[in-house]
Each structure stands twice: as C-alpha cells, then as structure tokens.
Amino acid sequence: MNKPELLAPAGDLERLKWAIDYGADAVYFGGPVFGLRANAINFTFDDIAEAVRYAHERNRKVYVTVNIVLHDKEALELEKYLKKLESLKIDAIIVSDPAIIKLAHEKTSLEIHLSTQQSTLNKYAVEYFKNEGVSRIVLGRETTKEEIEEIINSTSIEIECFIHGAMCAGYSGRCVLSNFLTKRDANRGGCSQICRWDFKLLDENLSELKGKSNFSFCTKDLSLIEKIPEMIDMGIKSFKIEGRMRSIYYIATVVSIYRKVIDEYCNNKEKYAYNETYKKILDNCANRDSIVQFFDGNSDYHCQYYNNAISASNQDFLGVVLDYKDGYAIIEERNHFEPNTNVEIFGPKTETFSFKIKEITDLEGNIKDAARHAEEVVKIKVPQEVCRNDIMRLKRV
Amino acid sequence: MKKLIIPNGFDEIEQLKNYYDGIIVGVKDLSINVNLYLTVDEINSINLDKEVFVAINKNLHNSDLRKLEETMKSLKNIKGVFYYDAAVVYLYEKLKPSYDLVWSQEHMTNSSVTCNYWNTKNVNYAYLSGDITLEEILNIKQKTKMKLIVPIFGYLPMFVSKRHLIKNYLDCFNIKDDSKIYYLEKDEKKYPTLDNELTSVYSANILASICAYQELEKNEIDYVTFNAFNIETSKFEEVLKIFSNKSNQKLEDLFLNIDTGFLYKETYYKVKGDKNE
C-alpha cells in the first residue's frame, strides 16, 4: 500500500519542530516574502536553513509557499528569492502564479507544487500544469471524491488534497472581499477574513430577509478523518492540514491524530476500525464544528455557520511537559488547572493516557491550590513515564 | 480604444449598437459574471457587425469538460474566448480554433510578467483585474505585447462560490423568497448578489471614471469594458453616450454610488518578521 505523506502547516520554527516531532512527514510555511500569510510571523532565511536541517535530519521534507499572485513590482526580486530558496535546499516551492512556475523552471532546479490558489478542479487543467513542469497539484477544496478519483486515474502527477482545517467560502483566488471592504489584498496574503463578518440579507426590493442570525459567508471547518482509508486507497499522494496561524497545541493534536489513523490503516487494513474518539478530540481542539464538506458532494446549509460567536479560545491545552523524574512530571502551564482535574497526556512517543491530578506543587515541593499563571512551572505526580514536549490537556472524551 | 459591453439581453445589443465596438456574452453552464448566457447555436447566429467575445470563465470541474470541448469546437465567427481555467488553454492547444484567447482570471490578471507567460502560450489578449491601479495598468501596457482589455464601468465581481450561499441561508431559517437578485448590506453599503448555479457577489459601488478612461485612451489601451449588470438600459445607454462625448450629462447625476474602484487606490498587505531584508 502506498502510504501518503502527512503535510502539516508551520507558522514559525517552533511550530515546525512540533509538527515534525508529532508525526508530520513534511511541513509547509511562508518565507520572508511572496507567501499568502503576510500577517503570520513567517520564516527568515536563517529560519528556513534551520527548518531544512531539522527536517532532513529526521528524513522529513520542507515546502515553502511562493503562492502570491504577482504584481509587477513584486516580480523584480523574485528570481533572486527563488535562487536563495534553492541554495537552502528546500524540497519544493508551492506556487499559484504560472509565471513563477516558468521562472523557477528556467532559473532553478526547484521542485514545484501548484497551490490550491489556482483552484485546479479538473483533469485537463491538471494535464496543463503537468506539462508546465509541475510535479504535484494541490486540488481545489471543491472537488468531490469522484472527481479526485477521476483525476488520479487520468494522470501520473502527484495529487495533494486538504484533509483538515478552515475552508474558504469561495473558490480560492476568486474572493477579494478583503480588498473591497478593508483594502487588504487577499491574493497577496492580506486576507482579513470578511467571510466571518455578519451581513444583512436584502431581497430584490431591499427588504430585509431576517433569520435568527444574520447572514454570514462563514463555513464550518473541514475534517476528513473518517474518509482517510478511502483517500489512501484512492492513491492521493499527500494529505494537507490547513492552519499556518494555528497554535502548537492545535498542530500537535491534529498531526498526532491523523498520524495515528494513517498508520493504523496502513499497518493493518483488515483490522482497521474508525475511532470516533479521534473526531471528538479534533473538534474539541479547534472549538469549531468540522464536516467532510465537498468530498461527499455536500454544500448545503449544514455546512454554514450563522451563529455569530463561532469559536472561543481553547482552554483544553493545560501544559507542556518539561521533564520527568521518579514518577513526577514537570509541567509548564498554558491554561489554569487544579487538583482533581481529569487530564490526559500524549506525545510523539507517549501513547495517550488519562488520570486525575491529585496534587500540584512548585519545584521546591510547596503545595499549590492551582496552576494559574501562563508558563508557571509546577510538578504533578503521573501514573506513567512521560517525555519532554508531551502535552497535557483536559480530558473531555 | 474599443468599447466592449457586457449586455443584459438582445434588446440592449440592438438598442445600443451605435455606442460600442463589441460584446461579451456567456455560454450556458460554462460562464459566470456576465449577463447574457446563450447556447452555442445562439452565439453562432448573432448577426452583428461587431466583435463578439465569449466568456468561458467558470471554475471548471470534470463534468464540464465534455461540454467545454464541444463548445470550443463549435464556436464560429467570434473574436475570442475569455478563460479562467487552464483546461481551456489545454484544449485550445489541441483544437487550434481560429479565434483568440483572452486571459481572464478575474483577480489574478495583475502583472505584465504573467501576461507575457500566457503570451508564450499563444494567448494574445488579457482582461486585466479590476483590483489594480491605473498606474499598474499603464505599466503593464509598456511591458507586454498582449492586447489589453480594462474594466472602466460597472459593478465589479468580488466573490464567487460553488456554494449556494443565499439559498443555504434561506433554507436554514425556512425563509421563502424567489428574488432574482439579493443584496448583502454592511455599513450602509449594499453588495449585489446572485445565487444561480454559483454564488456571485459584486461591489457596492459602480466603477466609473472619465479621467481614467481618457488616460487609458491616451496610452493606447486596446479595449475597455462596460458592464450592464444591475443597470437599467436607459441609464446604461446614457453612460455609453457620456463616455463617447455624445451627452453633457454627468455620471454623478445618474448614479449615487459611483467610484473609481482601485484605479487610484492601492491595496496593501503586510509582511512581518523579515529579519533578512
């Protein structure tokens, strides 16, 4: 069986390392310029060099987004930038503008992946870009299972599909709500997420059509956790997780869950059984509903959010393990916790286990009634050995 | 500089024929953001001493490809096809029809570099984005051999979705309504919205600039477009007269919601944390 690549987002170097440690086969991120997350921290050239070193030492891959839609003034520095990326030995660039494909081909030996921003949804477009020298295509998120299958069966090129994360309400590249309402260019990384704003809906006579909530473009998130076996059997080469702006907790949780599902299925297809708990953990982590979206052809109102406050900050992430000794874990706090809280710990080498916190002390052994402060370091007794960078979260499921 | 109109119907094509040089129409099931969707036979039987362009500018799925190929083979006596999806270029190379292609990726037609890329694929026209400045347009003109088409009048498309976003909202709250057009209102601005095969949202204001028009003409831009979407024919006719110096009326007297779009207003984006710069 062809095991697909699990591709994770990395908002910065720290999150890149967490993604790799928690099981990503490859990571993607924006460099100093020309990416579509201009408001993320993004990677410096030094960061990229370190990312490549960290990933390659672990036999993982690094892709850099160069998926901006070009304006003339950006084009001037592009060749120099691509050559610099090549010198840093990244594994591929992710591109949407075909002029960048041509330039990268002519001036570098960089491997080129076509970004979802090009909204590639059919087999002829796939063939077009294959002939242009692209080695992989990230399909548009509007493709159904049948469409993906037809594309894979008609081409030899690698196909990458999104499996998890936020969805654009419109076709990628075809939404400039942000440009018109806030002057921020969505196709150059400035998207201000107008899709999450409320609007009044008026009919043709300008009378309001009022539901219990205002109109919003906002859609629920994508989660294809239950479809992973089908997608592996279909021959999709790479499974992509969305979310370069997400936290280390989100990255670690989502990557580790998909890692488990892919491994469980590939290691023993006959005995594989869908684990509903995984979906619940993913939903709790994002604090947003997620569904399979277009994969099964559905895009009706069940895919939409109309309830205003649609996500709250997640309080489940309680702390990070800094050390372990003699049955005690040293924990750096992320959210408030106290004795008698039911928690679980998981990590790259630590199978998830749960327990109730009996006692919290500081490092000198003084008893505390709670861990209250961000990055406060405390000690708790744990029922089994844990490792540095394991995560402790609230047990919900 | 030639004037292309995006008409609402055959009546307009006939009534306004003294004021334009060509038309842009769509093909049923393959087009978006035009106002008249026709069959291939209807397009081929247009009897007009003007240039006819056809927009095949929808995001195409596998199920559209058969119709796409049949359409591209069958279109006759047209000047060009506006395309969004690379599948059109793929088939163009295979079929080698007599008409030209117009690169028309709506919000992506922003640079001379990408114009010149498509020019190497035998594409000779580019319909520039409504999101770039006049300065950028004139700069592109200097750096490409492509014939340029620039939007100068009309509501501008700003969003397309495969989802039926209006229908979904009405269904969710069990609201019965069969309006042909809707408006999304925010901060007293009303954005015209269609939910047909796809959902399209347009700008709240109408792009209209005589100054920019004159500047484009002076710099030998090849074509400008006038979009009749959501505009009464009588007003649209007056607009065409104004741009042809055949009327003394002012655009401001016809419409309360006109502006110059992005022609004199640059969008921005932010890049943080670049320690290498």
What is the topological layout?
The complex is a heterodimer of chains A (397) and B (277).
Chain A: E1 5-9, H1 13-21, E2 26-30, H2 45-57, E3 61-66, H3 72-75, H4 78-87, E4 92-95, H5 98-107, E5 112-114, H6 123-131, E6 136-138, H7 145-154, E7 158-165, H8 177-182, E8 198-202, E9 215-216, E10 221-223, H9 228-234, E11 238-241, H10 248-267, H11 276-286, E12 290-291, E13 317-325, E14 328-333, E15 342-346, E16 353-356, E17 360-361, E18 367-368, E19 377-381, E20 391-394
Parallel strand pairs in A: 1-2, 1-11, 2-3, 3-4, 4-5, 5-6, 6-7, 7-11, 10-12
Antiparallel strand pairs in A: 7-10, 8-9, 13-14, 13-20, 14-19, 15-16, 15-20, 17-18, 17-19
Helix pairs in contact in A: 1-2, 1-10, 4-5, 10-11
Chain B: E1 2-6, H1 10-15, E2 22-27, E3 37-38, H2 40-44, E4 51-56, H3 65-74, E5 80-83, H4 86-95, E6 100-103, H5 112-119, E7 125-127, H6 134-143, E8 147-161, H7 165-172, E9 182-186, E10 189-195, E11 199-208, H8 210-218, E12 223-227, H9 233-243, H10 251-254, E13 258-259
Parallel strand pairs in B: 1-2, 1-12, 2-3, 2-4, 4-5, 5-6, 6-7, 7-8, 8-12, 11-13
Antiparallel strand pairs in B: 8-11, 9-10, 10-11
